[in-house]
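To: structure desk
From: M.T.
Subject: fold request, one chain
Message: Could you run this one when you get a chance? Sequence is below, nothing fancy, just the single chain.
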Amino acid sequence: MTAERKCPTCGTNFEHDPASQWRPFCSRRCKLADLGNWMDGVYRFSRPLGVDDLEDDEALLNQLMADAAASRED
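Reply: Done. Structure tokens follow.
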């Protein structure tokens, strides 16, 4: 199953395949460009992550898992 998406690096519309090794990017070049931006410090977290951030993520993950299980039962 494919859907049209916009590449987060170059902005090009492309047919997104969930099985693609480059997802969510359109190509290897865009995936490597994104990685390079992280390594060069172009992208960075706005503040250090704390324990509260992890707890929020865990609560969200638990809710998503519960919602997914409920939708499978329907």
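Reply (cont.): The CA atoms of residues 18 and 42 lie 27 Å apart. Let me know if you need anything else for the meeting.
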